[in-house]
């Protein structure tokens, strides 16, 4: 939720936008389309495409943060107190791996 607040603050300050790297087509419900139109009117310095791109990016960041840590058996490091840090066997490492895979193929 904090990232979404930061995004709203960024929109209010009308800061520099991120460049679009890949264009895709999406379908929105009438309700979601109306909300994007409303956002575009509220933040008239941004296009609907910019708003959607930034919303998706923020949602993906929050999704990644929400993935649960599942402790594995393998010790991968020690923390500052010398306690073991166990590998994450949940979805986070797989999501990161797949993200890197598609990031390298998208260039």
Structure description:
The chain is of the alpha+beta class and 107 residues long. The protein folds into 2 domains: 1-66, no CATH class; 69-107, no CATH class. It has 4 helices and 2 strands; from the N terminus they run αααββα. Strands 1-2 form a two-stranded antiparallel ribbon. It is elongated.
Task: Give the topology.
Layout: H1 2-13, H2 30-42, H3 48-66, E1 71-78, E2 84-88, H4 91-105
Overall pLDDT level: 89
Query: Can you list the strand order of the major beta sheet?
Result: 1-2
Strand content: 5-15%
Relative helix content:
55-70%
H/E series: HHHEEH
Low-confidence runs: none
Please identify the structural class as seen in this structure.
alpha+beta
- The number of distinct helices, counting runs of at least 4 residues, comes to 4
Calculate the terminal CA-CA distance, rounded to whole Å.
Answer: 31 Å
Taken from the alpha-carbon principal axes, the silhouette is elongated
Largest sheet: 2 strands, antiparallel
Number of distinct beta strands: 2
Whole-number count of domains? 2
Q: Any idea what the radius of gyration is?
A: 18 Å
Summarize the structure.
By secondary structure, the protein is of the alpha+beta class. Helix content is 55%, strand content 12%.
Descriptive labels:
single chain, 107 residues, alpha+beta, 2 domains, 4 helices, 55% helix, 12% strand, elongated
